[in-house]
Amino acid sequence: MKEFTTKDKYNRVLKERAALPEGFQTAVQSFDFYPEERATDEPMRMNLTLIELDEPTDVFAGVFTRNAFPGYPVIIGRDLLGEDKISGILINNRISNVRCHGGKETALNITGELQELRKKDHPYLPSSTGIIGWKLPEKEMIGNLAPLSDKLKRTDFFEAAESIMTTDAFPKVRSADLDGGRICAIAKGAGMIEPDMATMLVFILTDIKIDRGELRKLFPEIINSTFNRISIDSDQSTSDTAIIFSSGRKECSSIDDFKKALYSVCSSLAEDIVRNGEGTSHLIRVTVSEAESVEEATGLGKALINSPLTKTAIFGNDPNVGRFIQAMGDHLGEKGVYINPDNIQISIGDQIVYEGGFFSLDEEKEKKLSNYMKDCSFVNSEGFPPHERSVDLNIKLGRGICSSQVLGSDLTYEYVRENADYRT
Question: Same domain, yes or no, for 312 and 208?
Answer without folding.
Answer: no
